[in-house]
Write a structure and sequence with these properties.
By secondary structure, this protein is an alpha+beta fold. The chain is about 20% helix and about 30% strand.
Length: about 260
């Protein structure tokens, strides 16, 4: 099938999911439930052949998505895209939904074609636990100073070597990334951190959040960001924030 690209379609999916029940996006060994596996199985049942679905981001266990993007190729040229979306949703569990399905150019790849991604992290700041938000937010018991966190977040914008914000398991040699936006917004009981960048290292967003929280609770000054970016040492940064509050909101692509 792959030897004759003219006889196949490249289908782009936008997917939303609650990641609490899954071991992340990426397919793993048999018996380990992942979002990619569920989407591939649903698509295969409808189009009549196995598919490999490539995702834009490999979200970790417990991480959510409102705008994960994925694509796959199919030799089934007849099934309408609206019917494909509806049929997949009828076969997927309630915590995964196909938001849209579109035919795209053969060269499109959900990950390699991406030019930017936006993540959002929700922190519920209250001495009392919110049962209805369980699994959707990081419940932080003590008060945080959003203005200090905002001053620190501003220092992350631009092109930097983010080795100090990567997990020790990060194996990529090039750890330079560009952050286009890092904003801290405060509501009644929530602090929301939104980050847009051209790429992210493993656990980079959760490490950024953990560092901003340390600054918000006055353990460090906002200038600790300068220390981390200069030293490139993970030990200078804060703890890794839990996965619950993190969502992949959208993936951006260059106009075709």
């Amino acid at each position: 099938m792959d030897d004759n690209p003219a006889a196949r379609r490249n289908i782009k999916l936008v997917i939303a999911y609650n990641g609490a029940a899954y071991h992340g996006w990426q397919r793993q060994a048999d018996g380990i439930d992942t979002v990619q596996q569920r989407v591939e199985e649903a698509a295969a049942k409808i189009i009549g052949h196995p598919v490999t679905v490539s995702g834009a981001g490999r979200t970790d266990a417990g991480v959510h998505a409102a705008g994960q993007v994925a694509n796959f190729h199919t030799a089934n040229l007849s099934i309408p895209l609206r019917g494909l979306r509806r049929a997949m949703n009828s076969r997927l569990p309630r915590d995964i939904a196909i938001r849209s399905a579109d035919e795209v150019a053969e060269k499109f790849h959900a990950s390699r074609s991406a030019v930017a991604k936006t993540y959002r992290y929700r922190i519920y700041v209250s001495p009392q636990r919110s049962v209805e938000l369980c699994g959707q937010v990081w419940h932080y018991w003590k008060s945080l100073e959003a203005e200090r966190m905002r001053a620190a977040a501003d220092k992350l914008v631009g092109e930097h070597d983010f080795r100090g914000m990567a997990t020790s398991a990060e194996t990529r040699e090039n750890t330079v990334r560009t952050i286009y936006r890092c904003e801290v917004a405060q509501g009644d009981s929530e602090i929301i951190i939104s980050v847009t960048g051209n790429g992210f290292l493993y656990n980079m967003v959760r490490n950024i959040v953990g560092t901003l929280v340390e600054i918000g609770r006055r353990r460090w000054e906002p200038e600790q960001i300068d220390v981390i970016l200069t030293s490139r040492n993970r030990r200078d940064a804060g703890p890794t924030a839990p996965p619950d509050g993190l969502s992949l909101m959208s993936v951006q692509y260059s106009p075709t």
